[in-house]
Amino acid sequence: MTGPVHFEAEPGARPDARPLEVPKSALVTAAALIAVVFMLCIAARIFGFGAFAERQSAVIAERQLLFLDESNGGIRVVDATTQGLAASLPPGTNGFLRGALRALTRGRSSAGIGQAVPFRLVRYADGRLVLIDPTTKRSVTVTSFGSTQVESFDRLLRPMARSAAATP
Fold first, then answer.
1. What distance lies between CA 30 and its chain's CA centroid?
2. Any idea where the domains of the chain sit in the sequence?
3. CB neighbour class for 30 (10 Å; exposed up to 12, middle 13-18, buried from 19)
4. What is the pLDDT of residues 68-108, one digit of tens each?
5. CA distances (Å), 2 to each of 5, 6, 7, 9, in order?
6. I need a surface site. Which of 87, 110, 157, 167 has the fewest CB within 10 A?
7. Cβ neighbours of residue 117 under 8 Å, at least 6 residues apart?
8. pLDDT tens, 118-154?
């Protein structure tokens, strides 16, 4: 086996056929198209148009909330303006709300920001309900995830009734 390597032709190949070659102009056109698509995506992200455009709408309701971890694994939600209890979330409940908070607080912890700055929960005139972290400028548009998730956050937007707050 010291001789040259010999490759046999594909079955059915014509002996007089030229090797397959892709035209150079087709490769250049494909590369240019890919470059233009990437540049448009980057421009949309930077300048905020297309899918990245933030729709401007009036604020209907807003509440600033602190989410404080409890020793039993629950979360105490405090209205940052009144310092009153907005909600108490028992351990193992409100999975979507916890996930949204985890996503936003991950950015805070990596930046060394604690729990002292409240989150903003905002209802816009166009129907969007958004949880915003003003320290990292990140947000979660809750209305993108369905009515059940909207309900869990919508309850936090309304102040608790005195009778509900007084019951254990």
1. 31
2. 24-53, 59-166
3. exposed
4. 878 888 888 888 888 888 888 888 887 788 788 877 878 77
5. 9, 12, 15, 21
6. 167
7. 134, 135
8. 889 999 888 888 888 888 888 888 888 888 888 888 8
